[in-house]
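A sample copied in:

***
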Amino acid sequence: MFTIRDQQLKLLLVQRAGEPYQNMWALPGGFLDIDEELEACAKRELEEETGIRGVYLEQLYTFGSPNRDPRERIISVTYYALVPSDRLQLKAASDAADVQWFALDQIPPLAFDHQQIITLAHRRLAAKLDYSTIAFQFMPETFTLSELQTVYEILINGNLDKRNFRKKILALKGIEEAGGLRRTGNHRPARVYQLKNPERVDIIK
């Protein structure tokens, strides 16, 4: 699960309460019930270990190397989730001893092959910025175009031309004016926008 906090892209990790890798940090996850759908399992495990529910989920990849888990042969179907920071109320539950957000450049040593999973998820997220509205999933209920541009710049770790960015975003027709203006610092008041379909990610090319 990714969010943006303190002007950084951050990742959710849980501290394992039991073996193997007791007390090490890992991605939230667990075992599929025999009669359970994959996405339902991902949502259940996320809520059980972190207390978070109702977020955007997308299937990432299937990891199945023979020795990735010391207990037995384990095949993991992974998902990544995106959530606005204003919706975060974490709590450790189930088999997690603790749950915390980590900046991507400050991730501790991880259990299993979870660093490999994180690397792939981050790469997928950055790639989808070019052809989808996935970055909108980080936005609160209302926002300015400058705030949206800041999110894009954090995700690509670079700067964007303000005029070109606004032209591109407004052409997508995925946002609409929410009414009113918002002032940030000494800047002029800016129009406030909202998503037309906040739970949907559109492909744009």
Remarks:
- The chain has two domains: 2-128, 134-195.
- The two ends are 25 Å apart (CA to CA).
- The chain has four helices and eight strands.
